[in-house]
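Check this.
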Amino acid sequence: MNKFLTKLQEIRENPTVKKKIIFTLVILAVYRLMVFIPVPFVDITALMTKTINSNSSGLWYFLMLLGGSLDNFSIIAVGLAAYINASIIMQLLGSVVPKLEELTELGEQGQQKIAQITRYIAVPLAFLQSIGMVYFINYMLWGNIIPTTLPNVLLSALTMTVGSIWLMWLGELITEHGISNGISLLIFASIVSGMTQKIYSSVAGTSNILGVVIFMLVIVLVLIILSIFILKSVKEIPIIYARRGKVQESSNLPIPMNPVGMVPIIFSIAFVSFPYLLSKLIVQFQPMNTRLVGIANWIEANLNIYSQQPGIFAVIFYFILIVAFTFFYTLIVFSPEKISDNIQKRGGFVPGIRPGKETAKYINGILMHLCLRWGIGLALIGVYSYILNYIPFIQDLVQAFGSLPVVVTGSGVIIIVGVVQDIVGKIKTDMLMQRYDKIDLSGIDKNLQQL
């Protein structure tokens, strides 16, 4: 406790770090104020009535998957999803398009150009997603929260697109002048806000308050421990570099136990959602093809990932997709051949492994092992809230509490742990750099005085 208080005192006395923290808090306050600015033409009364009474429907769980809330259908309802999707698209294209691959090797200048292209891609994605959001929320809430005339839809979509780009700009301001990565921090703030709302509704809606609180604390604590273990664990491959004569230098090649973070969960949500949303459209329009309608009805009944208790087929499909995308994205982000070439060019080798193809094969084997092991771990975190409904004693708790008090998704916990870890690391780095600057300046002053 004393160490914690001492660290807080050091942060308070550090003007640079304190300025960055205050700037970040101001931007986060602006972000939270934007939540209360509704999109034009929205029937706020009908929206709030239906969202408040939708705890048993798929809407609340849909919002939990996104880590946010649409209580007011604000101008930032789309959030940063378009920018995240654009970033993932650029990462995928970077390993396929030669020109983009060259930009990634240019250092900071290349990264700036990639960031600019990402922003350009995010704008049309945000507009298309905004149009889809209007129709989707109308469908999920069984009515026209926004009248779907062409002018209304276009103006609402344009408003949400501007809100999404505004959020992207706020995130970049935090990255440049504040602490941590701004985009991640805004998502973190959205998830924490959703958690507080869920905790309040879970506690206020039951007579067994102590039991609900203990259940939520145990679940969140277990998820945090697992997330820290997955994010912090590193597999180190020993490397030996031969120098002139018989001198050798040893080093380690660190490979994260979870090489790709929560990206597989994002991909999997998109893929598992697509057949369900497509089946909804088919059922709504009722085509003449009876077989097609029958398939759509089966998908709607068995692959509804937005339900608080989806079918076993949906859970298994979602689980398999997370593991599969862990392999897929790892092969795109990590290239064993490039890693092997870099080691060989620097005169290094893995003990007991021949340089070149043998080293690439060895590294690839380690990556595949990690993908299988921690892909399953990531999938378990992603589907934990669904699995709980199939555990017998959890079902007894559901009957006792009235509902399953799940306050955060597995992906939300991973984001929270990652952002907190990033904030702590950034503050430590800033304080250490300033301490070195003071030492250097004091040394220069002493030398000047001696002269």
